[in-house]
Structures are given as C-alpha cells and as structure tokens.
Design goal:
The complex is a heterodimer of chains A (about 260) and B (about 250). Chain A has about 260 residues and is of the alpha+beta class. Chain A contains seven helices and 16 strands. In chain A, β15 and β16 form a beta hairpin. Chain B has about 250 residues and is of the alpha+beta class. In chain B, a hairpin with a 2-residue loop joins β2 and β3. Classes of the chains: A alpha+beta (about 260), B alpha+beta (about 250). Chains A and B meet through β1, β2 and β6 of A and β3 and α5 of B.
Chain lengths: ~260, ~250
Amino acid sequence: MEEEDKRKMRIVTPGEKISGRINLRRTDNNFFIKIGNSMIATNLGVLKKTGSSLDLIPYKSVYTPRRDDYVIGVVIGYAANGWIVDIGASTKAFLSAQELIRWEGDAQRFDPKKYELSEHFKIGDLVGAVIIDINAQSHPILSLPSEKQGINKKHLGKLNGYFIIKVHTTKIPRIIGRKGSMIKMIKENMRGDVIVGQNGVILYKGNYEDFLLLKKIIKTIISNTFAPGLTGKIAQMLGVTVTEEVNNNRGVEHE
Amino acid sequence: MNNGEREEFIRVDGRKPDELRKYSIRAGILKNADGSAEIKLGKNWIVVGVYGPKEHFPKFEALQDRAIINCRYHMAPYSTTERKSPKPSRREIELSKVIRTALEQAVILEKFPEMSIDIFIEVLQAEGSTRVASITAASVALAEAGIPLRDMIVGCSAGKVNGQIVVDVGEAEDKDGEADLPIAVMPNLKRVVLLQMDGKLTHEEFKRAFEIALKGAYELYEEQKKALKKLIEEMSLVQEQEGDEDE
C-alpha cells in the first residue's frame, strides 16, 4: 500500500508542464495556470493522483483568505468604527464594533462618542472570528456568527489563556485531515481545548505537558506532510489503536 | 575560427570555452525570510531573501490590478578586493531595476493586487556575472517562498575573450574581454527576459554567444530544480517516479 502511495506522487517545480486531468473547480486547487494549450504548475510541491484527477500539494503557498475561513488574529490597531486585526495574510483584516455589539446580544447602534473600543479589545488581544467577506481592497472583513456549524461559541471573540503554535498555512489542511479526521482524532484523544485557525494559528488550553505533546504531534505532521501513513503514526503518538476507519485515511490528503 | 582552434583554447582559469564555473544552489537557507536561496558560482557567493506578498506602503503607490516587486541588489563592502562603499552605487541601482524587470515576467503578480513583494539580493563575494547569478538565485528564493511563478528564471552569461566566444564570464575575462552578453530565460516557456550586451560582436559571434549562454542556463536550471526538490526530499521519503501521470 505504501509503495503504491509513493508511486502516485511526483515532485514538481514551478514552470513544469503537467499532463493529466486537473480538477480546477476545487477552490483550493489553484496551483496551476494555463499557458497556450498546456497546464503549468506554479508552485513547488508534490503532484498526487487522487482517483482520476491530479492535485498539487504545495511546499509553501501564500495564505489567501477566503470566505467562511475560521481565523485567529491579533488586534494591532483601532479604526474609527472597529479593530484592525492581523491574521497573517498579506492584508490586514477588519472587525467592526457593530458586529461585536450584535454578537453580544445588544440592540443598540454603534455610537463612536459613547463606545470605547479599547474597553473591548486591546492591542495585542487574540481574537477568533470568521471571514464574512473580502472587500474591494482585498481586506478580509471579520464577523462573529451567532450560529455556525462546526464553530464553538467560546472560540469566537476574545481568546484568553491559550498556548500558541504557529505553523505555515499550507500545513493546515494536513493537520485537519480528510473531512477533519486528523484534528478529530487529536481533539478526541487529548485533554484540553485545541483550536485550529485556517490562517495557521493553533491554540491550546490545558496543562503544559499536554501542550508539549501537541507541539510534538504538530511537528511530526509538518515534517511528514508528503509521507504516506501519517494518521497511523499520529495515532501511535496519542496512544490510540489504529482502527480500520483511521487506516483508510492514510496517505496524503488535502481538504 | 574552426573547431580545432576552439578545443585548444584554454581560459584564464583553465576552463574550456563552454565550461561553467563550479556551481551550487541551496534553497531555504534563511529562517526569518519567507523564502531564501544561495548561489555559489565560481567565487561568486550570493544570498537572496524574499518577503511577501504584503500590503504595499505608501498606499497611493500600490497598483490596483497587480503586485509591485521591490528589488534591491547590493554588494557587501567586503565583496570585492578593494572595499566597496556600502552606499548603493549607480550600477547597483541599475542592476536592481534590470533584475526586477526580469523577475516581473515570471511572477504571477495579478494574483496579489495592491501588494508588494520584496527581494533582497546580497552579493557577499563577487567574481563577474553577478547579475545573472542573482536572477538565478532570486527565482529559487521566490519558488521557496511559495509565490506562484509562470516559470523559473535562469541566467547565464557569455562573452568574447581573445577572439573566442566563452560561457560564464569571470571577473578577469570581463575586464580584459572584448564583449559580454548576460541573458536570462524562462526555460520551459522559452522566453528571454533579460538580454544585455557590452562591447561588439558580429552577427555570427552573437549567435554563437547566445547559444552557448543558453546551454549554460539550461545546465543551471537543472541545479535550480535539484535545489528545490531537495527541500521536499529532505522532508519525506518520497521517491520521484517519472511518467506516472496520464499521458
């Protein structure tokens, strides 16, 4: 099985022509461009065959914020009606004060004369939010949805008392795994609270020993991004017996 | 000139006319930069760091439809036999511009409107043909940073020394030679992105010089690929298997 996985993979560098079917409809699969009649890889990465189409798992890529991404950012400044948040993307994100008022269940309108921004978020505070839109200047607009599938309410707004691990955003799909299998396994088998932001920030609340184990697990995932049989390895580290279901998820997955 | 003559010709450093200096390229050498690379070509030693894409400042200078590349070519004070003033010279400002325009052809700038990409080229040791070596290293650094590229860019130079067309001109040959021709190409798209010439060449000589520089560039392209592939190979045990995709 592992030999087969390896044979399906090939390292490509930017500019290499790719022959084969590429699923361009997938939003995260934009590591190809068409020049003339040929498809060309734009990033360094591993080309992997899934079913009948080809995927490129990049070595690194620039994080482009997308709608509905859950991100963790740091407040870096104040605007007239909200906060400027650094989410690690190439542009700074914006969280409006009105959004926070609405989320806190207040009916009042935002009044810049009465509302003191620094009473709610100070510079340096960690904020969990969801990208609702990207504006014309390519700045992500953040929101705090009151009900959203897969997002716990306590993971939104100000986040206090967490350990922080920062990874490259390209590694996040691997940490999450196919249909969330990897992160589900980690969350289920670890004490404490694990949050993964799409922008490459991982937070952990719990005791320090467990944090070190999580750090070790993340490091293993990162250094084995392109290697098959990772889920089994992580299960071993967590002390979980590999079930048939987990075993099926081995190999490079890219959500 | 006939072929017999060409074979006899030995250059200042003992190379054959179509022989490159010893070269090596390494990617990902700097921890703090988003992407980095190093090239050693003969005694040339150049380090490149890439940052970005990031928001461009000042805002009014940003372009609405694409990113801006900021490129700085700089020679360290200890890079030459006599101390070079660290102040950017006329030559360095010009080379920064020439390298920038070459790299702009490859980077898919349209993906990052209103942003900028910073490229810092530091020549630690210089021995001729630094502009093409810088381009070769900068392209590897860009690929390592995950910035989407249409193709790699690889540069090589050719020149005329004692009436003989030679590849990869060194410092001594550059000073005493009759002409030099640095080129940079996109090897897969077969496009020339930089072509400069200093001195005089006849039509035939130019053709030969271009050919020989192109051959040198393709040789360096293989080294570029090797350096990039090494990054992934070091991460995992993936063995490259060619010809496995659907034809």
